[in-house]
Specification:
Elements: E1 2-5, H1 14-24, E2 31-34, H2 47-59, E3 63-67, H3 75-85, E4 91-94, H4 97-103, E5 109-111, H5 120-128, E6 131-135, H6 142-151, E7 157-170, H7 175-179, E8 198-201, E9 207-212, E10 215-223, H8 228-233, E11 238-241, H9 248-259, H10 265-272, E12 280-281
Length: 296
């Protein structure tokens, strides 16, 4: 079983992005997903920058993958998507059906977590048109995964999101700009002020959601470190961890040590906890409401 590092969901300064991936090159991860997946207005990092980082990660022995935008709204975004797909070197993670349509029958690709693959027929279709890996949508539970695993193509890898704030939805509106009473087109990149998103709480002070530009995330952090044994039994090939600005490499180490049998999952959960201010959730995995924490 391998570890992957998902694309950075937040708007970070260029220097911070390059520093992050310099550390990733030395970290015990096998696959690194690169690129802007949330907002097309975020242009601090251009495609040549991502290709430069991909080359460095490849030289360090990692598999580099280019991820695409989740919400395509304009011809300029479709044109940029086409440029990514035609990069000629790196596998592409398709995060919407426009990307899959461009990749089908052209090059092997990865079905991202934002594509609704909910049954075996959809999974079979993806394999037939060229997918070599799929990432399970986060809202599915372990019983659904077990059913899909029993019928998946032998050449198709399965990846599961196991750590990070859950990306729940994307909108044409920008929630961060709205919170500052700004129009989306004049947002001033206020999301850069929130390197881990803007937390929202209920009137009772309970963590609820996390706003990240046009994306809504879970308030709590999804954490399946206690379920690694079950994921292995279900023949999951790759565990995905989503980047956060602080403590990320300590979290990667904790997962790796559990996978290698060097650390109990309960001890790993304890070592990860200080890096999570809003607490954990694992409800979706257990078929419960997503914000619930079932495994205490």
């Amino acid at each position: 079983m391998k570890i992957s590092l998902g694309p950075i969901p937040y708007l970070w300064e260029r220097s911070r992005v390059f520093d992050f991936y310099a550390r990733a090159a030395e970290a015990p991860v096998d696959i690194v997903y690169l690129g802007e997946t949330v907002c097309s207005k975020r242009r601090a990092m251009r495609l040549p920058d991502w290709l430069d980082i991909a080359a460095r990660l490849t030289a360090a022995g990692k598999e580099a993958v280019l991820s695409t935008l989740t919400l395509i709204e304009a011809e300029s975004e479709a044109s940029y998507l086409r440029t990514i797909i035609e990069n000629g070197r790196y596998t592409v993670e398709a995060n919407d059906m426009a990307a899959i349509n461009m990749l089908a029958g052209v090059a092997p690709f990865i079905v991202g977590p934002h594509v609704n693959v909910y049954n075996s027929r959809a999974l079979e279709l993806m394999a037939r048109i060229g997918a070599r890996r799929w990432v399970m949508p986060m809202e599915l539970d372990r019983e659904t995964l077990a059913a899909l695993q029993s019928s998946r193509s032998a050449n198709l890898e399965t990846e599961v999101f196991v750590f990070g704030r859950l990306p729940l939805s994307f909108s044409a509106r920008c929630f961060t700009a709205r919170a500052h009473n700004l129009p989306k087109d004049e947002c001033g990149f206020r999301c850069a002020d929130y390197p881990e998103g803007m937390p929202m709480q209920t009137r009772e002070g309970q963590s609820f959601l996390n706003l990240n530009g046009i994306q809504v995330q879970s308030g709590e952090t999804y954490n399946l470190v206690n379920e690694i044994g079950e994921l292995r039994a279900l023949k999951v090939d790759i565990l995905r961890l989503s980047p956060q600005p602080e403590g990320m490499f300590e979290i990667i180490d904790a997962f790796r040590h559990v996978m290698d049998g060097q650390l109990e999952s309960s001890a790993a959960a304890g070592s990860i906890a200080p890096h999570q201010t809003a607490g954990f959730c694992d409800g979706y995995w257990h078929g419960a409401p997503g914000m619930h924490r079932v495994h205490v």
